[in-house]
Amino acid sequence: MKKAFSGIGFIAFIFIFGLVCFITFEYAHIFTVKESVDTDISRGLNISVDAAMQNIDWINHTSVMNTDVAASEFKVYLRDIMKLDSNNAKFTDDGDFLYQIIIDEEDLRESPAKYSVRGRIRLQPVTVRSILPDRFDIPFSQTSKNTRYDD
After folding, report:
1. What is the CB neighbour count within 10 angstroms for residue 87?
2. Mind listing the pLDDT tens digit of every residue in the chain (151 residues)?
3. Do 82 and 90 form a contact (C-beta atoms < 8 A)?
4. What 3-state DSSP class applies to 46?
């Protein structure tokens, strides 16, 4: 009787260990993609705000931004630097889906210069696709400000 129980206990241990490994791998994947996208979006917003700052206002110690230029620069960054398609989706070289950025809200302010983006990162699971939904969303929010202060 004791040998049978130890065999079942060992199988239960292996099952629980495997489940913990799958959950850990999935969480690591989600965390890595979210941090990467957050960094890229933050960088894109900063570049967009800097490119849209009006030089004469910068010299006069004011913070005024051309919002049309900022929005255009951010779209160029998403397409050219992040290599997203027209639906803001990223794929591997083999054509496998990695993630999609869904922008729910953009807030551009001319003065003081501010560009905020709020949305979701749509991912698909990499380890336990039969248990988790086909695709799921992780929220994000990023803001870039450029305020000029007197020296």
Report:
1. 8
2. 455 557 788 888 899 998 888 889 888 988 999 999 999 999 999 999 888 886 666 566 667 788 999 999 999 999 999 999 999 999 988 988 899 999 999 999 888 889 999 999 999 888 766 666 778 899 999 999 876 554 4
3. yes
4. helix
Q: Hey, what are 102's tokens?
A: 């869904």
Instruction: Note whether 66 and 52 are within 8 A (CB).
Output: yes
Residue written as token pair 């255009």: 72
Q: What's the CA gap between 45 and 82, in Å, rounded? A: 12
Sheet holding 136-146, edge to edge: 89-91, 97-109, 113-123, 136-146
Amino acid at 6: S
Compute the distance between CA of residue 80 and CA of residue 45 in angstroms, rounded to an integer: 14
Domain ranges in the chain are 2-146
Separation of alpha carbons 46 and 52, rounded Å: 10
The three-state secondary structure class of 108 is strand
